[in-house]
Amino acid sequence: MHLSTAAFPETATISGWPGNVLVIGSGLVGASLAALIRQVDDEQGGTKRSRVVVHDLCVEHARAAVAAGHADAVALDLPSAAATADLIVLAVPARAVRPVLRTLAGAAPSRAVIVDMGSVKADFACAAAHILSPDQLARTVPCHPVAGGTASGPAMAGAQVLRGCRMVLTPSQGCDERVLEGLLDFWRALGFACVVMSPERHDRVYAVLSHLPHLLSFALLRQGRSLFDDPAMLASLRGNAFDLMTRMARSNPALWAEVLGANREEVLFGLTELRSILAEIETNLRGDDAAALARALAPEGEMTA
What is the number of alpha carbons within 13 Å of residue 208 lying toward its C-beta? Predict the structure, then answer.
């Protein structure tokens, strides 16, 4: 497969493919992306194009990712690993973004492409604009792989977690167009279906498509638990609808508190809209008018699934 040379022009071992990849964070997304890069690289045959190293504050997590075959090596020293990287991937919790960016500002070469894998983009874009140099910022593209689930950690990682998923790219106005095009080529070569939008648009969209559903899942589980003194009763009586609606509440609540906080304004905006919809449904429910209630549940022309 021919890839654009624009994103990785200086040190790529094969046209358009990053020779040295540094993944910062070896959790589910970071380790899975490392595994996907290695898998696609192997499938192409011939000379190995990428060396993928992982760095994590929890060294045992990084070592587990390497032991599972997801990456080639552990990078113990972040500045040294960043200095030789062609592609630097941040796959860290929201609270770690700024400290990592500060390290990269003093260590990442101007040729390196920097991408972020978090699910909140405007906050990352703002942090990057304040911390990175203009040259580094021009080669920084916040991205969001729409994948994952309730699992976490390198033990649950694998190329299959991300393969075939959607990748949302949210370049800032100062992004180098050649870098964006080259990165699009690279993501597509890995099997991602790519979409480009602004960081602000992304955060409004995914407040509704991801962040609010998680919030509501946690809330509904709390409500269900309040019905019973014995949690076993909830487990024995719950139906499929409750299971489907509360599946995401199995996720890490501390992690999701960070995500919701990072996208606070858009989540609050979404909650306001949701309250309005629920108020309309409640009004029609109180009015004992089945036809009106049905219209409130699914207005004409709107999707019902």
Answer: 10
